[in-house]
Write a structure and sequence with these properties.
single chain, 326 residues, alpha/beta, Quinone Oxidoreductase, Chain A, domain 1, Rossmann fold, 2 domains, seven-stranded mixed beta sheet, 9 helices
């Protein structure tokens, strides 16, 4: 079968598209014919070696895939079922979706919800599913559309793009943060009410800034998240799901004890299946599939490796879908 394979000899990593034997697939009780995979920031880190994402070598990257069950000994799935996989260490510790077949635990799979098809589910992928988890986190903390603007960092990326579309569809007023001024029309097309230059959130962090937003979704971490927290309105909520700008958080306790701000951590990798099912059910009902198509680009399998570096450079817009066996 065809696969993107990351290999390592001593301290040197190499990546290539290879024909590998199906016998090399790791253990699992469900074998899936992969229809679509994706290219994500984490995949780009793995392929370029810019961060120690891969825990075992050789490794097939691809933290997302959709496809059809070929073989199963898992009680919940049978041949012919259409399924989605996001996270669970796939592409890091367990071979991922950038191959024609994948063998995984059935506990990691989610049934494809109508009316979404396999390509659309891949376009949503971990980024869109994470965005939905963030929206759910805001809702659970009581943030309502009439409370004020929701600020979204990394707005032109995968998580940010889907988050804007989801929030706007529910009637929230969205402020989109980007370092790419040329993406302003794209972001407004997704539903952003305003576009903010990233520089407004990368300056020196004050314990408390001007109250601006009732909620936020952050993919950056570091100074961006710290500034976002300092500018939350009283009892504002920030859902944090990324570290594109760094793992540190140069903040203070001031937003939490003087304004009652909540920082809600969102993890999509090991998220319990019940939450995954809720998120995918909401995506099926809430996400405008026309908007999804606008933020999706198809990438030929053969171009995955050379495109990975663009993620690291921050020049990728929206979601990238990779047809494997469409």
């Amino acid at each position: 079968m065809k696969a993107v394979l990351i290999e390592k000899a001593e301290d040197t990593q190499s990546v290539s598209v290879k024909d590998v034997s199906e016998d090399q697939l790791p253990d699992g009780d469900v074998l899936v014919d992969v229809a679509y995979s994706t290219l994500n920031y984490k995949d780009a880190l793995a392929i370029t070696g810019k961060a120690p994402v891969v825990r075992r070598f050789p490794m097939v990257p691809g933290i997302d895939f959709t496809g059809t069950v070929a073989e199963s000994s898992h009680a919940d799935f049978k041949p012919g079922d259409r399924v989605i996989l996001n996270g669970w260490g796939v592409g890091e510790k367990h071979w991922g979706g950038l191959a024609e077949r994948a063998r995984v635990s059935g506990d990691w799979l989610v049934p494809l919800p109508a009316p979404i098809d396999l390509r659309q589910a891949a376009a949503i992928g971990t980024a869109g599913y994470t965005a939905m988890l963030c929206v759910l986190a805001l809702e659970r903390q009581g943030v309502m559309p009439g409370d004020g603007e929701i600020v979204v960092s990394g707005a032109a990326g995968g998580v940010g793009s889907v988050a804007i579309a989801l929030l706007a569809a529910k009637g929230y007023e969205v402020a989109a943060v980007t370092g790419r001024a040329a993406e302003a029309d794209y972001l407004r097309g997704l539903g952003a009410a305003s576009v903010i230059d990233r520089s407004e959130l990368t300056g020196k962090v004050r314990p408390l800034g001007q109250e601006r937003w009732s909620g936020g979704i952050d993919v950056a971490g570091s100074t961006v998240l710290a500034n976002m927290l300092s500018m939350m309105k009283y009892r504002g909520v920030v859902a944090a799901c990324g570290l594109a700008a760094g793992m540190e958080l140069p903040s203070s306790v001031a937003p939490f004890i003087l304004r009652g701000v909540t920082l809600a951590g969102v993890d999509s990798v090991m998220c319990p299946k019940s939450d995954r099912l809720e998120a995918w059910a909401r995506l099926a009902s809430d996400l405008d599939l026309g908007k999804l198509e606008e933020l999706t680009t198809e990438l030929p399998f053969a171009e995955v490796i050379e495109t990975a570096s663009k993620f690291i450079d921050g020049t990728v817009r929206g979601r990238i879908v990779v047809p494997v066996n469409p």
